[in-house]
Design goal:
280 residues; two-stranded parallel ribbon; disordered C terminus; Protein Transport Mog1p, Chain A; alpha+beta; binds zinc ion
Length: 280
């Protein structure tokens, strides 16, 4: 395990979500690196801080015991969700997240349903075939692309840097429309004998994936994925607070879920960097 790999999984370690083998490997690195130990300390402090904010929500004394009990459960669930969110947020967005802890979660019935083919068609049309650039952003620099998109879109658009997986940022477009649902589509390409294209979507709200199977836990995190297929093109969707995100490609479902894990780790990295070099 390199130091960078260790940094990428520190938040999971701080949450106690790492498998024993990797935890042991990380502990060996922690023992040897005071910097890494300091970074872990910052993660733990941040988590305690978020936990205090969430658990500090006062429950009115006039509520009956049954309601108070249910609110307690909801708060514990929400705490877990928020701790997970902190892992994946970018540095700037994380500060906002602390302020919107009590963002209401949409009810199931009001969450729009989006079909796998809505994602798959954009993947085919924009990612594989046309490779057009619907929005002008710096394509060679994921961080600059993220900043440019955040400024022009009314919702948070993430642009993971997948260079470590061999994927080059290839284009960004705003073609995705399904009813009232919009998403920004970022697509990547890995060159080779059989080029691989993957699409990543930041959706402007939470959506449900029609006909999807739920995969309750994946290998890396406690993220709950919904997976659906359209003509061998697989879509893997997850939620973070008020938004949904999805990856889409023509590859076996378990391979795409693994890719989704990697995308989330890639999204977590800027946060770790920011914690290691606080600006405030
Ligand atoms: Zn497009």
């Amino acid at each position: 395990m390199t130091l960078d790999e260790a940094r990428a999984i520190l938040p999971l370690f701080a949450d106690g979500e790492l498998d024993p083998a990797r935890a042991a490997e990380l502990e060996a690195l922690l023992a040897a690196s005071p910097d890494l130990r300091a970074e872990l300390q910052r993660w733990r402090s941040l988590r305690r801080c978020v936990g205090r904010i969430v658990n500090g929500a006062p429950v009115p004394a006039t509520l009956g015991p049954a309601v108070r009990e249910r609110l307690g459960h909801a708060t514990r669930r929400r705490r877990k969700r928020i701790l997970r969110l902190v892992t994946t947020l970018t540095a700037a967005a994380a500060v906002v997240a602390l302020g919107v802890t009590f963002w209401p979660t949409p009810t199931h019935a009001s969450t729009p349903l989006v079909a796998a083919d809505d994602f798959a068609n954009v993947y085919l049309r924009c990612g594989v075939t046309m490779r057009h650039r619907g929005i002008m952003v710096p394509l060679d620099d994921p961080d600059a692309a993220r900043r440019a998109l955040d400024q022009r879109e009314p919702f948070r658009v993430l642009v993971p840097n997948l260079a470590s997986l061999g994927y080059k940022l290839d284009g960004v477009c705003g073609c995705f429309h399904a009813g009232k649902v919009r998403a920004i589509h970022v697509f990547y390409r890995k060159d080779g004998p059989t080029p691989v294209v993957i699409s990543f979507f930041s959706v402007d709200q939470r959506v449900r994936l029609a006909g999807a199977e739920s995969c309750p836990r994946c290998a890396m995190k406690n993220t709950s994925y919904q997976v659906a297929e359209y003509r061998k093109i697989v879509v893997c969707k997850w939620d973070e607070q008020a938004h949904s995100y999805a990856v889409c490609s023509e590859m076996p479902a378990d391979q795409l879920r693994h890719l989704a894990d990697e995308v989330q780790l890639a999204l977590a990295r800027p946060m770790i960097f920011a914690l290691a070099h606080p600006e405030h």
